[in-house]
Predict the structure.
Amino acid sequence: MDFFAEHGRDLPWREPTASPWAILVSEVMLQQTPVNRVLRVFGQWMARWPDPTSLAADTPADVIRIWGRLGYPRRALRLHAAATVITARHTGVVPDNVETLLLLPGIGEYTARAVAAFAFHRRTPVVDTNVRRVLSRVVRGVDEPREPATAADRAEMATLLPLEPAKAARFSAAVMELGALVCSARSPACGWCPLADRCRWRMAGSPPGQARRAVQTWHGTDRQVRGRIMAALRASDGPIPEVTVAQLSADTEQGLRCLASLLADGLAVRVDSVHIALPD
């Protein structure tokens, strides 16, 4: 926690004035997305939709346009769906406990616990891949591959939390920041780590863990083509011909496959037999 006080990044969702809604939005945006990319969209998002009610009143198309190239745009639709439920069932107020947060569309264990802890100072374990890596190395003495957090990880983190809820929330944020800035996956800065003298992995000689999964190249993938289609839809003032969409890939079959997946995800809709648009 001393490390966090001195080295923690100054981020808008960590400001004392940050609303529970701002924290919820930031947690969804930060899933599989670096902080520097989120910062460019977060401010624009909060300026337009400072609360769930204002977001629920807008269309999914508006939400997708503001989301821009942040990636994994289904998250934008999930935020819109969550805002709609918060507005309809919770009078526009973000729920303050894990159980109720988990009932919101698109909100899983990590996000529910992060919002409960960081927005409402609930004493609940918050474990993302950064926290899991610190737990694995410092407490278990192994360098485990990057995997989603499990119930066992959360139970282990719970045993380490300070008893005071506000301190427990700050402790979770501190461990998360340590994993992001120091105990990184590929180049851990052990000489700078405040836990270096008690890290079981370091004391064991920092043995290599299992081989990490290869990162998929971007060029030519379905993700790239889906991104091109979404960019074309966002840039258009109206529907665009399906044949144009299919031609956004050098492989027409791939273009049609990616379009079909976007239609299935609700990120695009058919206006008529030959035109595609963002959802209303």
Remarks:
- The chain is about 55% helix and 0% strand.
- The CA atoms of residues 262 and 268 lie 6 Å apart.
- The domain at 2-120 is CATH 1.10.340.30 (Endonuclease III; domain 1).
